Write a sequence for this structure.
């Protein structure tokens, strides 16, 4: 392990690579084994017991079987934990598998009540509302957490920045409402930090117990890996690994390899995308064809800046295209938004985010469609709203594309 005093950039390059010199290699090996030979039965039994307890198999018996432990995935987990500043992280087959595991791991001692802060990622909203996991859920907003707590509350779930309006929720305040950090007797708080990445926000510094990422997004960063990860303490990681062993929502080693390969460039990717997003947000905000523009750089927040909850405003922005009637909502705005998406050439019309190339999508029609109508209307999601995931293209080229596509959608 590289030492903790290193900066994020250095950790991103070196974390999870501590065993490579001893192996005599420079790049991490990709180990696709599903099973592992053992030398000694006693050692294998000890290793199996350790893993069933949720521990890493430091024991001599090796990984035994890849649903229990995958060394290539474990290197990524070490790297991601270093960036989040947590003791450990546990990777899953998708972001939803990671969220599901966190919910299942939180349920214990007869406690099965969750406080969900809306708005939250649409599929998470649906998962919690569906009753599928047998959890009792109380929905609230960022200010209602304290009132929503019950003696059997086992987890508070919150997402920040919020999708797609990029509102920021004060993590320290939510933790305070939950009774303080878990170590001080508070109810554990899970933060979906996907939009921020560990480069811009490390929620455990504000007292969150669990940090969840859809690693499908900026952490993977190249649009070719579906994955999720939860960063937390050793104790939480043990319970998350136990859930992963039992439910089998493991990450494939090739996916773990690709995620680890992307970590060294994560800081530069995020900072470059953020600079371009800030530039585009200002141009959109000054444009008469556009209604509201959502990017934390435009409405300076006490939560953004060096040493704050978020070190910068982030790589995602949303904006409203006005319809022929000048309205950002209603059928004319929907038409204008669909023409805009059709006429983009450089930007790809697609859901998802955090890739090297820019992606634009329509929240009302696509990502927020699975939310309940109530959750949708409180989230500011109008028919003209476009969400843009800013990639690594040149800012002027991106602006030229947006400008031209908007031109054709203007009355
Ligand atoms: C994509 C996403 C998820 C779900 O992740 P998958 O990898 O698609 O399962 C959860 N939260 C946020 C904020 C996301 O963007």
């Amino acid at each position: 392990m590289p030492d903790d005093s290193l900066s994020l950039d250095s950790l991103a390059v070196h974390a999870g690579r501590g065993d490579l010199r001893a192996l005599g290699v420079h790049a991490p090996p990709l180990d696709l084994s599903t099973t592992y030979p053992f030398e000694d039965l006693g050692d294998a039994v000890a290793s199996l017991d350790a893993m069933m307890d949720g521990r890493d198999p430091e024991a001599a018996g090796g990984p035994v079987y890849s649903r229990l432990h995958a060394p290539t995935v474990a290197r990524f987990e070490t790297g991601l934990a270093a960036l989040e500043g947590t003791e450990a992280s546990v990777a899953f087959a998708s972001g939803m598998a990671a969220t599901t595991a966190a919910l299942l791991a939180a349920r214990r001692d007869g406690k099965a009540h969750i406080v969900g802060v809306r708005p939250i990622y649409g599929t998470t909203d649906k998962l919690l509302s569906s009753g599928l996991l047998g959890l009792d859920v109380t929905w609230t907003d960022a200010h209602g957490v304290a009132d929503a707590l019950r003696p059997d509350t086992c987890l508070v779930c919150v997402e920040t920045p919020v999708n797609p309006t990029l509102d920021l929720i004060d993590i320290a305040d939510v933790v305070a409402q939950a009774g303080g950090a878990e170590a001080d007797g508070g109810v554990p708080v899970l933060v979906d930090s996907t939009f921020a990445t560990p480069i811009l926000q490390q929620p455990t510094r504000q007292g969150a117990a669990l940090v969840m990422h859809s690693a499908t997004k900026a952490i993977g960063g190249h649009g070719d890996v579906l994955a999720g990860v939860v960063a937390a303490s050793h104790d939480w990681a043990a319970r998350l690994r136990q859930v992963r062993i039992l439910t089998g929502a493991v990450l494939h080693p090739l996916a773990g390899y690709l995620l680890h390969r992307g970590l060294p460039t994560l800081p530069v990717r995020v900072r470059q995308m953020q600079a371009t997003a800030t530039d585009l947000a200002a141009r959109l905000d000054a444009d008469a064809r556009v209604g509201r523009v959502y990017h934390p750089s435009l409405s300076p927040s006490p939560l953004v800046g060096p040493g704050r909850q978020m070190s910068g405003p982030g790589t995602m922005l949303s904006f409203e295209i006005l319809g022929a009637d000048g309205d950002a909502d209603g059928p004319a705005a929907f038409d204008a938004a669909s023409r805009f998406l059709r006429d983009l050439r450089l930007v790809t019309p697609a859901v998802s985010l955090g890739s090297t190339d820019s992606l634009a999508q329509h929240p009302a029609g696509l990502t927020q469609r699975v939310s309940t109508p109530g959750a949708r209307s409180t989230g500011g999601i109008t028919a003209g709203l476009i969400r843009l995931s800013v990639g690594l293209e040149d800012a002027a080229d991106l602006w030229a594309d947006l400008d031209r596509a908007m031109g054709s959608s203007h009355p």
The chain has a mean pLDDT of 94.
